[in-house]
Amino acid sequence: MRTTTPINFREKFATFSEQWSPKIIAQMNDYHFKIVKIQGEFVWHRHAETDEVFIVLDGELVIHLRDGDVTLRAGEMYVVPRGVEHKPEAKAECRMMLVEPAGTPNTGDAGGARTAEATWI
Amino acid sequence: MRTTTPINFREKFATFSEQWSPKIIAQMNDYHFKIVKIQGEFVWHRHAETDEVFIVLDGELVIHLRDGDVTLRAGEMYVVPRGVEHKPEAKAECRMMLVEPAGTPNTGDAGGARTAEATWI
Fold first, then answer.
1. What is the mean pLDDT of residues A24-41?
2. pLDDT digits (tens, 9 = 90+) for B30-83
3. How many A/B residue pairs have CB atoms within 8 Å?
4. Which residues of B touch A51 (CB under 8 A)?
5. Which strand (E) or helix (H) includes residue A11?
6. Which of A35, A91, A106, B54 has the fewest C-beta atoms under 10 angstroms from its C-beta?
7. Right CATH number for A9-110 from 3.40.640.10, 2.130.10.10, 2.60.120.10, 2.60.120.260?
8. Fold of B9-120
9. A83-103 pLDDT, tens per residue?
10. Cβ contact (<8 Å) for B26 and A99?
């Protein structure tokens, strides 16, 4: 019998509290859907090989780009094109979903202490 | 200057009223993010080459599978694996987002009158 339970964002978010630690909730072909809680500033980085999708589910996210800022609220999404430097920031805790190829590192080309391996929940 | 306007689901849905007519709102690599309004029953079909993601933004969606039904409400998602027959249904109008490779036909292997080419909005 196939699993016929939908993936509920609110329930998934309730299972963890740590910030900047993406959790995989679904896979489509070789892409992962990941949810993450963030607050504060991330590091500037880029993904040379892939676009990256940000969907805000709760709160407000600013994606800093070298040539402008994008402000997203719940019910909004943005695609950061491959190769484009960006720095996510949230003044208050923001809950969002990321879509990108499985194995894409959160810090892209920057690496460093903020690198976190996504795990399934 | 890059576009720094986020994609707002509510605003996008306000631009059309027809049902069963997917509209492309974003592209990530070779994948499309499409929004659609549905009401009533679709046709049984499958996509032999790709998984398909359903994210419900408003209303209630039932995805009938040959071995069970999945009921999704706003804030829930489900991945129909490649090759798996499914039939979406919504008693009242449901607004949802689909994620799948660009060019994936909405009726999969079934074809027929319900086939609709997705257009950008």
1. 98
2. 999 999 999 999 999 999 999 999 999 999 999 999 999 999 999 999 999 999
3. 98
4. 27-29
5. helix A9-13
6. A91
7. 2.60.120.10
8. Jelly Rolls (2.60.120)
9. 999 999 999 999 999 999 999
10. no
